Design the sequence.
């Protein structure tokens, strides 16, 4: 059963100044170490930063909670061996998902020259 869906679109240039400096508070509060490793492995890291940020926002919206329920860093978006994005929850997000009986998160990430977009669907059994 679908619990919620979320979508987000982001003008990529809005995060460009912040992600240019890995010590920026935005980067430290938003991305996990594993995400940063993945992003650094890409030829165009800015697009990977942007799609992951849009993805985190889409997952947050799919939860249907208020802004202080958990941090975006509690949502981790990596990839399987085929390059398909996979969502992992940590901290308060993982605890909330368990409490709500949420069992699966599906996500789609995309970008074009100026925009990154994401769509997430959270399911419960």
Sequence:
């Amino acid at each position: 059963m679908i619990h919620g869906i979320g979508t987000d679109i982001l003008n990529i240039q809005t995060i460009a100044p912040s992600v240019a400096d890995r010590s920026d508070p935005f980067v430290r509060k938003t991305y996990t170490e594993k995400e940063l490793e993945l992003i650094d492995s890409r030829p165009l890291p800015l697009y990977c930063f942007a799609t992951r940020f849009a993805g985190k926002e889409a997952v947050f919206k799919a939860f249907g909670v208020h802004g202080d329920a958990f941090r975006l860093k509690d949502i981790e978006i990596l990839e399987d061996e085929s390059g398909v994005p996979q969502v992992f929850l940590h901290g308060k997000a993982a605890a909330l998902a368990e409490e709500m009986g949420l069992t699966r998160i599906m996500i789609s990430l995309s970008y074009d020259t100026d925009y990154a977009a994401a769509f997430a669907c959270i399911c419960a059994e």
